[in-house]
Amino acid sequence: MVKKTTHRRQVREAAKQVGQFILDTAIIAVPLYLLFSATTILHQIAAQLSQFLLSLLGKAAIITSQNGVPHLIMYNLDAEINNLCSGGLELALLIGFIAASRDKTVKQRIKGIVAGLLFFILFNASRIAFTMNSFGTPWFEPLHEALFRVVLIIGLVTYYTIWYYFE
User: Of the chain's two ends, which shows fewer C-beta atoms within 10 Å, N or C?
Assistant: First the structure.
């Protein structure tokens, strides 16, 4: 009987911690996502860095702006860098996950957020450049249509896991 009661208490405590983590993440991530969606700063950063990475691959691309939204143009491809491309949702979630990790010190969380911002911005631009570089190949459609967002989620989960367990 004692064993069963202890187990139930542990399950309730774990459920409470999970609920608190989800709530804390939402309290941080939702306003951040709304802020990221209200600006084009992440769009601009993604476009500029993607253009640079494409140049390292020997591909020329120019950046134009249409209605305040950057477009990365490469021969027959006009890539609009919009909210879906900028990674704002995933970045807001990453910051929310790290900030909600109450078992880490504030210093560890701040370092994790700063490093996460740098990692994620570079990771996202690399993803865009890699996808654009595949234009004209049979890989472009599956990369763009199916894997484009999945890769962001994989990057988010991988970074958080590495930060959490190896900080």
Answer: N
